[in-house]
Amino acid sequence: MSRAGSYRYLVFNKPYGVLSSFTDPDGRQTLADYIQVPSVYSAGRLDRDSEGLLLLTSDPSLFHRITDPRYKMWKEYWVQVEWIPSEDALTSLRRGVLVKGKMTRQADVILMAEPKLWPRTVPIRVRKHIPTAWLRIRIQEGMNRQIRRMTAAIGYPTLRIVRIGIGPIRLGDLQPGEWRELTNKEVAELPAIYPTSASE
Q1: How far apart are the first and last CA of the chain?
Q2: Within a domain: 159
Q3: How far apart are the C-alpha atoms of 129 and 120, rounded to whole Å?
Q4: 64 shares its domain with 96
Q5: Can you give the pLDDT at residue 52?
Q6: Does 142 lie in the same domain as 89?
Q7: Number of domains, the chain
Q8: Which one from 26, 47, 49, 68 is the annotated catalytic residue?
Q9: Residues 62 and 36 in one domain
Q10: Contact criterion met (CB below 8 Å) for 111 and 90
Q11: In the predicted model, what is the mean pLDDT of the chain?
Q12: Is residue 178 part of a domain?
């Protein structure tokens, strides 16, 4: 089963500094600088200073399933932070932290080895005497600048964020600014994971 014949489904590796929209009154870089496919829109967003996987689709049903927090969709990020988080700090992230007066949902958080990534167009700030660490963080919600606020809440400022997964869709070896169509198999997997009705 595939709906790829009637709708378009794209995976894009959003570079640092690019907005997750097709227009900007201030003339900043947008998706239109990289993608010339009509009638697709980003399903979920990435901050301008975040990088990685962005899904675009013309399918309004899938758009709703990806953006509605009731569907509890997993999103996976590789996150570089200042300092080396303690086990207590990681436990706090896993249980949920207070962000703008609201507790975040439970998250899946582990320390990871430094990943092999492309150089960022604007290098991160490096302070010679402060070590950094990489975390793999998986969350099921999408509050504004949530990852940055979560790590700041436990005292570990975020330096870099790269989203590598949304549900079953992975960034893979796409380079910044590159995009591809979802395969029929990937499209078919999405409705199985995000059914047509969601419980509160």
Answers
A1: 28
A2: yes
A3: 21
A4: no
A5: 97
A6: yes
A7: 2
A8: 47
A9: yes
A10: yes
A11: 88
A12: yes
Q: Is pLDDT above 50 for 50?
A: yes
Report, in angstroms and rounded to the nearest whole number, the Rg of the chain calculated over CA atoms: 17
Q: Is residue 1 part of a domain?
A: no
Q: Is 24 a catalytic residue?
A: no
Coil vs helix vs strand at 115 = coil
Average confidence (pLDDT) over 120-139: 91
DSSP states of 151-178: HHHTT--EEEEEEEEETTEE-TTPPTT-
Stretch 119-124: mean pLDDT, rounded?
A: 90
Structure tokens of 137? 């963080």
pLDDT band at 93 (very low <50, low <70, confident <90, very high): very high
Residue 141 tokens, joined? 């919600």
Indicate the pLDDT class of residue 45, thresholds 50, 70 and 90: confident
Q: Give the list of residues 6+ apart from residue 1 with CB closer than 8 angstroms, or none.
A: 188
Give me the CATH number covering residue 126.
3.30.70.1560
> Checking DSSP bridges between strand 108-112 and strand 98-99, what pairing results, if any?
unpaired
